[in-house]
């Protein structure tokens, strides 16, 4: 890849290398849940079907979540930095966030929840808890869609960022107090990091990822960002090599033995992915036909893939328990087939459902002259496509 600084211009509507990274991050999380985390997802099905031994090579796939938290903080600050302290733009911010997150989430969680209600004796889901999950309101217990815990963190971040839009000074204080409270909880170990505890949504250490992303966006928006691109590239390679070392360490020893604590694991991955993202932002933003044709669609479909891969894992595991398919369950091709199936379904849903739906909703709900629909910050022009970089 070229090391020229990102070029400005009307054709640079999205940051392509981040789109590629988003696709790889979603794929890592999917693979982790299909193979490395299969026993946690479906212990009975995994025991009956068996699991392909890949020596836990994808144990560190969970770190794709850390990438998404950083990316969210980056995009929100980068796209909306001119909205800070301008209360009249709060409604546009809220509409854009709702359009990006909720339609596809509801498309997945409602069928899953209805099935869970039909099997409430085994799932424990009730109409009340289902409603809370649809609205992304944190609650105790297993969520209807397990991966929605990250969206609940997103919602907390959006609320606080909305305060910054209402009042820059008050919002900055609120963000600082929030991060300080999360740090105090971490240092003094006041809360266990448990997705089933709503308090961790508000004060858990995953919330640090948003600040990492904001800092990156602040640096990227500086006029002298391009002048330091070689430094960022060097640190990016250091981050990449260190990331590989963490992947190998988790593969060999497991996260619990390789890292001092879950919090240390998350903070380390935040730091390494931040170095890599800064390096990616230093690369010239231009079309790359092969990557655009492969990682581009994967990046575009990453939100759907993230939402749908756990229900698909459950469905496929149950299908391979059927007598007619049970002989195939131990085949070495089942694991890659399952991952490929999830990826293809996600890409199909992205192009056939997600993109047309979001385009229609934005056209209908967002004013044509809405401020911030096209923003020039730093060295690249961001349009509505920038919002699609998030989960």
Offer a concise description of the structure:
By secondary structure, the protein is an all-alpha fold.
Secondary structure blueprint with pairings:
Elements: H1 16-36, H2 38-41, H3 43-49, H4 64-80, H5 90-118, H6 120-123, H7 127-134, H8 149-166, H9 168-187, H10 198-203, H11 208-220, H12 229-253, H13 255-258, H14 262-281, H15 289-300, H16 302-319, H17 334-365, E1 375-377, E2 380-382
Antiparallel strand pairs: 1-2
Helix pairs in contact: 1-4, 1-15, 1-16, 1-17, 4-8, 4-11, 4-14, 5-7, 5-8, 5-16, 5-17, 8-9, 11-14, 12-14, 16-17
Verbal overview:
With 391 residues, the protein is an all-alpha fold. Helices cover 66% and strands 2% of the residues. It has helices at residues 16-36, 38-41, 43-49, 64-80, 90-118, 120-123, 127-134, 149-166, 168-187, 198-203, 208-220, 229-253, 255-258, 262-281, 289-300, 302-319, 334-365; strands spanning 375-377, 380-382. A two-stranded antiparallel sheet has the order 1-2. Strand 1 and strand 2 form a beta hairpin. Helix 11 packs parallel to helix 14. It starts with 15 loop residues before the first helix and ends in a 9-residue tail after the last strand.
The biggest beta sheet, please?
2 strands, antiparallel
Give the end-to-end Cα distance, rounded to a whole number of Å: 25 Å
**What's the pLDDT, averaged over the residues?**
86
Q: Helical stretch count?
A: 17
Structural descriptors:
mainly alpha, single chain, two-stranded antiparallel sheet, 391 residues
